[in-house]
Amino acid sequence: MNTDLEQKVRARCREMEIPLVGFADVSRWEDSSVNPDMPEAFYPRSIWPECVSVLVIGLPVHLPALETTPSIWYHEEYRTVNALLDQYTYRLAEFLNRHGYPSVSVPRDGYGHVSVLEDNPVAFFSHRHAAYFAGLGNFGINNMLLTPQYGPRVRFGSVLTAAPLPPDPLIEEMLCTRCMQCVNECPVQALNEEDYPEGLTEKATCAKYSQRLARDYRAPCGVCIKVCPVGDDRIHYHREDTGIYREKAGTEQYRQAWEHVRRYGVK
Ligand code: B12
């Protein structure tokens, strides 16, 4: 394992202000004790046979913007994070290439348009699985990868590399509290109480809702990540109490602010 290279990659990520970085050995996808029954075609080595490790980065979505969803504010925040993910993973792949290790970045999503997802709501590579195997978090009832730092309010990008980087340990302690707020607050009832990956029963319903929001420049939805109580970012933004998202006395000031934002910049 190349620990010197690992330190260089971590230092590069710090310079780029990337808060979450993890490494996964490709053998984790092939180990049935940690991998759910993901079809083999989705394994990194099936996609690129030279792959030895996967480098995963995570960038947070900022809670105050997300709280206004569906809105232009979250819509733009989402686009910014997506653009950065693609740029950062491309640049990290180039960094590794320059160090002599063949590497390639994977697009943060991997579909041409949300309408494509109505018939086939699957991409060729799963970043949430990569993030899990890179020790960045574990799965919640909302089907998202929850991290200690940001709960599910973090988007991931991956670099496939031939470099043998030391794998990070998986997070064993379950982060999801099973509070069911994601299930109860989903505006189109697309989630149920089953554990991942059965929980998202209505992928097409979720995708269709997202498509409707996209026509108005309000996509994506993101309510299931907004209401999740997990993540240190809630402390940072003074949002430990998720009751703020339900009508209750003393929360009018917030509701007015969110409604104000939702009225502008969209159809
Ligand atoms: C398609 C997609 C969607 C679709 C469909 C949802 C879906 N497929 O789960 C729609 C538009 C509905 C959607 C919605 C959202 N998404 Co989305 N989405 C994706 C995308 C592009 C592909 C997912 C995928 O198909 N991966 C490949 C498959 C193989 O893996 P998987 O879905 O991760 O896992 C499945 C398999 O393992 C499968 N499985 C397990 N065992 C078995 C066994 C067999 C036999 C089979 C066939 C399958 C199977 O079941 C798992 C669950 O469906 C990813 C980006 C990416 N490329 O990873 C983002 C991604 C998953 N989305 C993300 C987010 C944040 C969201 C939203 C919150 C919207 C938002 N941005 O605000 C919502 C949340 C919906 C929810 N609660 O699940 C993030 C998740 C971040 C995190 N912290 O986990 C990702 C990773 C984007 C990113 N780059 O960060 N999404």
From TrEMBL:
Residues 167-196 form the 4Fe-4S ferredoxin-type domain. GO terms for molecular function: oxidoreductase activity. PROSITE patterns: 4FE4S_FER_1 (PS00198), 4FE4S_FER_2 (PS51379). Coiled coil: none annotated. Pfam families: Fer4. It comes from the Archaea. This is 4Fe-4S binding protein. It comes from Methanogenium organophilum.
